[in-house]
Amino acid sequence: MLSSGTATLEVLLLRRPMIVGYKLAAITFAIASRLVKIPYVALPNLLAGRQLVPEYIQHDLTAEKVREGIVRHMTGAEDHEALMLEFEQIHKSLRLDASSAAALAIASLIEKDSSQ
Length: 116
Fold this sequence. Notes:
The structure is a single chain. The protein is mainly α. It is 59% helix and 7% strand. It contains six helices and three strands, in the order βαβααβααα. A three-stranded parallel sheet has the order 1-2-3, with no helix packed on it.
């Protein structure tokens, strides 16, 4: 169970299941819900373009709903393997072979410096 934000991305990259909850002050939620039009608040859901992990926002964030979400996960009612495969795909799409790109950039700088 964690709040929306970069923590959800970290948990996705660690390939751990999660339940996301977020509650704002009533006036802040009233303003934000009129200004921001996104289908999800959790980064895994936004990156997937669909709901991968449960989100409980504002009035939906109740002890009962969170308990039900945890029980669903712990009893195997959710397809854990499919979720982990989705997390892996998102991880690969974000990584974009960054190690190779960084190595090429460093090699280019070294080459440029040695030619001067």
